[in-house]
Task: structure prediction
Amino acid sequence: MKDEYDFSNAERGKFFQQDAEFHFPVYLEADVDDFLTKLAEEKGLEVDALVNEWLRANIQLIRDYAIQ
Result:
């Protein structure tokens, strides 16, 4: 690293995007990734759509169980 950097020509906010969304990565173990990839292909879905579908179903199960 340099001791000093010259920011005299810098432009504030050059890469800022108001509508940008952060999507954090999820790392799957190889066996889970293989299973989900094959199942998504069979169903004609993207893996993220399949995982979101499963997670929503589990969220609903948890909510239903918590209400009891």
Remarks:
- The two ends are 59 Å apart (CA to CA).
- The mean pLDDT is 94.
